[in-house]
Write a structure and sequence with these properties.
9-stranded mixed sheet, alpha/beta, 21 strands, 12 helices, binds zinc ion, Rossmann fold
Length: about 450
């Protein structure tokens, strides 16, 4: 079921790039016109920069337009960037900001039906989900876009969706068995926890039918993928499991902006709806395909809150080569972190994903870890690393060796000293939603 290439919208998904770019150019002009005529913020920005939608002749002209940042949404809280009156808005979502007011987005019926649900349906099919599948949706329902986004995508393709939402670990595991769930949609950290509990409870493998996980809403590494695939393959009926990356953010639409196919070599961005670029975080200049940069999207078909060149702050690179699955839509590499998640430790830039990358390749290390940053006189960084039960039973000398190995590997990758604390299985708090991996004590007090 999960190793067959299927398409939801084959003609669009495999469209020759020249044709796709023509479509993007036409739609970007429409977007710029919508923003210019309907959103005061953009009218002002375009006027300041002395540009109008008439200046768009080729896709290269996109670069002349201003970058939109999260602060623009906050400054126009709650509905200032909406391009449609409330009588045309059918849904409002919001994402919690770390400080103050949330970021608010509004959808017209077109945005929900023809953009979000459509790209979410494509994403699920791309991941190997199909009708007949029973999808246990453990993304949170509510103002957060994860739950409802996945939900309507499942219904669109004709899969049976269980609107389970996050948390409720025991009930999740009961439904895996009783409802025969074949697909899990969740954050990778919650998925890791669920796999661990299934194993602990020694549940009959024949009862666990899960063949695919569509995991997102937090960054995760290739090594984490291997761990998750092994963990579920060890407890399910077939001994095989695909962990597939889904990407999105509420400002653009929610989940389904891009998704990996079953070849797992980058996420296909649905380019007929989202025009993608990467830019240098410092200069704002475009970076070349293959070069890392901040991922930027223009929502070329959206009506409710159309955004021109919105920077996600997520760091990745773009690959325009045709994929083995036959899709022509550009792929982005796994997100390695957010430019604003970057920690500066003793003047050196450190991304949490670099630490995960090191930890996950060391045998005996569990999927659970915590990064603690403190300031004494200088910044200090400590990583609490949970061990698998088997490794934890090793002798003191072996554990001391393991600790030194991890410290050495971290130094090689980061070029700073990281203190490693090995902790017993089940010590690190489990995430039932988005994992909080970094505790930065410097920001408190
Ligand atoms: Zn592909």
């Amino acid at each position: 079921m999960s190793d067959q290439v299927r398409y939801w919208a084959k003609e669009i998904e495999t469209m020759p790039r020249a044709q796709l770019q023509d479509l993007q150019l036409r739609r970007f002009k429409e977007l710029a016109t919508r923003c210019y005529t309907k959103v005061r913020h953009y009218k002002q920005k375009f006027t300041d920069m002395k540009i109008t939608p008439d200046d768009i002749k080729t896709l290269d002209d996109v670069k002349k337009f201003p970058i939109t940042v999260k602060a623009d949404l906050r400054d126009n809280y709650p509905f200032g960037l909406f391009a449609e009156p409330m009588e045309n808005i059918v849904r409002i979502h919001a994402s919690s900001g770390t400080t103050g007011k949330p970021t608010v987005v509004g959808y017209t019926k077109h945005d929900v039906d023809d953009v979000w649900t459509e790209t979410m349906a494509r994403s699920l099919v791309c991941a190997g989900v199909w009708r007949g599948d029973v999808v246990q949706n453990a993304y949170g329902y509510g103002l957060f876009t994860g739950g409802l986004g996945a939900h309507f995508g499942c219904e669109r393709i004709g899969a049976a969706v269980i609107p389970m939402s996050g948390g409720n670990t025991e009930r999740q595991i009961m439904l895996f068995q009783d409802f025969g769930s074949t697909v899990l949609t969740a954050t990778p950290s919650f998925a890791a926890y669920l796999a661990e509990i299934i194993k602990q409870q020694k549940i009959d493998r024949k009862l666990i039918k899960l063949h695919t996980g569509v995991f997102g809403a937090e960054f995760w590494t290739e090594k984490m993928r291997e761990k998750l695939e092994t963990a579920f393959a060890e407890v399910n009926a077939t001994g095989k499991f695909n962990a597939i990356d889904i990407y999105g953010l509420s400002e653009i639409e929610g989940p389904g902006v891009s998704n990996e196919c079953i070849f797992k070599k980058g996420n296909h961005i649905w380019e007929d709806h989202f025009l993608a670029e990467t830019i240098d975080p410092k200069t704002g200049e475009p970076t070349a395909p293959g070069e890392p940069g901040e991922l930027v999207f223009s929502t070329i078909t959206k009506e409710g809150i159309p955004l021109v060149r919105y920077t996600t702050k997520d760091i990745t690179s773009l690959n325009y080569e045709k994929c083995d699955c036959g899709r022509t839509h550009v792929r982005h590499a796994k997100i390695t972190g957010r430019s604003d998640d970057m920690m500066k430790i003793k003047g050196i830039n450190v991304f949490p994903s670099q630490i995960e990358y090191v930890l996950m390749k060391i045998p005996g290390v569990a999927e659970h870890y915590e990064i603690i940053v403190e300031r004494d006189i200088l910044d200090k960084i400590k990583v609490r690393v949970e061990l698998t039960p088997k490794t934890f039973s090793d002798s003191m000398a072996e554990l001391e060796n393991l600790k030194r190995t991890i410290e050495k590997e971290l130094y090689t990758t980061l070029q700073i000293n990281v203190a490693v604390e090995l902790v017993a299985p089940n010590t690190i708090p489990r995430s039932i939603g988005k994992a909080k991996r970094v505790i930065d004590m410097r920001k408190e007090g």
